[in-house]
Write a structure and sequence with these properties.
5-stranded antiparallel β-sheet, single chain, alpha+beta, 6-stranded antiparallel β-sheet
Length: about 250
């Protein structure tokens, strides 16, 4: 397995509220973990929310003896939601904070992943497929037939999300599983990448890189060249290789 992760503040923002985490070693009952989170809130709140959410998820998974991957992952994310709400109630500087999250683990040939918000997980091989569903206003509008999919990316309300960690008690977490095959590359990212770079270009950049380190760096560069209006968070995973390279 080979992994690469990177965040960048982008070209406009002053604070980086994106947080990424990769581990190819076990956390509790999970053999590995990959996470992307995109914080929101005031100057301090957004970056705290994303990092603290990932820390709580990691801690919960390290302590769990739950062998059901779905229960372990979803439970950890729900615990993080409670902790973010608690922290926000205790500190006025953190009031209103929240974050997206997409988290994945690979067990042999199966990938299990969960998300809240509009950070994404893509599968890249012969083409590119978004495997997560955005919890956003424009995605709801697409599903209801109000707008066409191609209109969603440039819609004025594209940044309004309908679910987030810290938004309310009892967060709803989507959980998925997907069988992987040789040649697959997993791309997890915040909307600072997906809003700036079209899916087809994401595919060509990843496939055109000599390795995922070069590809990940090129993805960030492309987002910045296209405006870089938000922070950029990227995790790339090549499940079926023997090399490991982790960069944060």
């Amino acid at each position: 397995m080979k992994t690469f992760s990177i965040t960048d503040v982008g070209m406009v923002r002053q604070v980086n509220q994106d947080y990424v985490y990769t581990s190819d070693t076990p956390l509790g009952t999970l053999p590995n973990l990959f996470v992307v989170a995109d914080g929101m809130g005031g100057h301090q709140a957004g970056d705290f929310a994303s990092k603290y959410t990932v820390e709580v998820v990691k801690q919960e998974l390290k302590q769990t003896d739950e062998t059901d991957v779905e229960k372990a992952l979803v439970s950890a994310i729900k615990k993080a939601n409670k902790e973010i709400i608690k922290k926000a109630s205790e500190d006025t500087h953190l009031k209103g904070m929240g974050t997206t999250i997409v988290a994945a683990t690979i067990v042999r040939q199966m990938m299990y992943f969960a998300n809240v918000g509009d950070s994404r997980l893509y599968l890249i091989n012969q083409g590119i497929t978004q495997l997560t569903k955005d919890h956003s206003l424009v995605e709801e509008m697409v599903r209801l037939g109000g707008i066409k999919p191609e209109e969603a990316k440039h819609h004025p309300d594209k940044n309004i999300i309908t679910r987030a960690i810290g938004a309310k008690e009892g967060v709803e977490v989507d959980f998925y599983e997907h069988r992987l095959k040789r040649g697959d590359i997993i791309l997890m990212c915040t909307d600072g990448l997906s809003n700036m770079v079209e899916d087809e270009e994401l595919f060509h950049i990843v496939q055109g890189g000599r390795d995922i380190v070069e590809a990940g760096t090129a993805l960030v560069a492309a987002a910045k060249e296209n405006g870089g209006t938000d922070n950029i968070g990227v995790v790339l995973v090549e499940p079926f290789t023997d090399e490991v390279s982790i960069v944060c």
